[in-house]
Amino acid sequence: MPKVISQKEFNILSRTKERVNFQIVYTKQRNGLHKAAKEYFFKDKDFTIIEDTPDTPDQPDGPCITKGPKEPGGPEEPNGPDKPEDPKDPDTPDVSEGPKEQGGQKDPGGPDDPSEGKQKVSKPDKYVTHRELDEKLKDFATKADFKRVEDKVDVLFELQKTQGEQIKVQGEQIKAQGKQIEQLTETVKVQGEQIRAQGEQIKAQSEEIKEIKVEQKAQGEQIKELQVEQKAQGKTLQLILKTLEKMNERLEKLESK
User: Fold this and answer.
1) Sign of CA dihedral 127, 132, 138, 142
2) Which residue ranges does the record annotate as region Disordered?
3) Closest to 127 (Cα-Cα) out of 245, 226, 36, 12
4) Which of 9, 109, 157, 227 could be stapled to 5 by a disulfide with Cβ–Cβ 3.0 to 4.6 Å?
5) Which residues pair with 50 in a beta bridge?
6) What's the pLDDT at 49?
7) What is the mean pLDDT of each run of 10 residues along the chain (257 residues)?
8) In angstroms, rounded to a whole number, what is the distance separating the alpha carbons of residues 122 and 190?
9) What is the dihedral of CA 219, 221, 226, 230, to 10 degrees?
10) Which pTM was predicted?
11) Are 51 and 37 in contact (CB under 8 A)?
């Protein structure tokens, strides 16, 4: 389906895109006139453009024009050398001739070689009425459609702008959070050094405790030895006491005699 655009958009597209070919399309009206429109084909475009031209009388056969079947009761179309030329839109550039080469010569397709330079336009299957054309044009994009698209683009642009501001604010927040993380990292590093120093102190204290335990163990062994000696001395004292008691008894016996 060709895409319908405005004359202004067509002129802009003609300046920015390379035009490849065009053909004239006619639609039969009830008053015997044809509605002529030029269908342009552009390079690197996935659609064609129909540019409306003013109403023209019935057109006979020509290189780029095909004559359709006559409607019953309609006037006969002239068929002869005196063919009226197609009316041209003043804003529409003439694309029937290609760009001139160096030296002022035209591309092939001039009067010396009429069989070259133009692509043959296929004959339309049938002519359509105004109503049928309007039904088909409903599928084409209109100025209102372009306006809606422009509005959507404006909304998307504003949305992207707002999102860009939000991303900028979030970037500042992330940057501030990064600084906080760096400060926390330094604090954790200092605390780690302190914990490491405390660990060294605890390790030294543990070594001291081990040495004290060893000394306590040695003192315990000495205490045990002293207890054994005290026990032995106690037994010796008991023997001495018993000996003294026996000696006292003997003395008493001797005195009584």
Assistant:
1) positive
2) 49-132
3) 36
4) 9
5) 4, 39
6) 56
7) 66 68 63 67 59 50 44 45 47 46 46 53 63 68 72 85 92 94 94 93 93 92 92 92 89 82
8) 87
9) 140
10) 0.28
11) yes
Tokens standing for residue 236: 């010796």
Provide the β-strand partners of residue 210.
Answer: none
Place of tokens 């597209």: 13
Are 123 and 66 in contact by the 8 Å Cβ rule? The answer is yes
Amino acid at 21: N
Q: Which amino acid is at 130?
A: H
Q: What is the spatial distance between Cα 50 and Cα 40, in angstroms, rounded to a whole number?
A: 7
Query: In this structure, which amino acid lies at residue 100?
Result: K
Per the document, the length of the chain is: 257
Spatial separation of the C-alpha atoms in residues 23 and 62, rounded to whole Å: 12
- Residue 49 CB contacts under 8 Å (≥ 6 apart), including other chains: 2, 3, 4, 5, 10, 13, 39, 40, 42
Edge-to-edge order in the sheet of strand 3-4? 3-4, 49-52, 34-42, 19-28
* Closest C-alpha among 139, 96, 101 to residue 4: 139
Distance CA 84, CA 90 (A): 18
Helix (H) or strand (E) holding 7: helix 7-16
Residue 227 CB: number of other CB atoms within 10 A?
10
HSE-CB at 161 with a 13 A cutoff on CA atoms is: 6
Residue 98 is inside which H or E element, if any? none
Q: Give the pair of three-digit tokens for residue 238.
A: 């008991």
Buried b (16+ CB within 10 A) or exposed e, 144-173: eeeeeeeeeeeeeeeeeeeeeeeeeeeeee
Burial class (CB in 10 A: 0-12, 13-18, 19+), 182: exposed
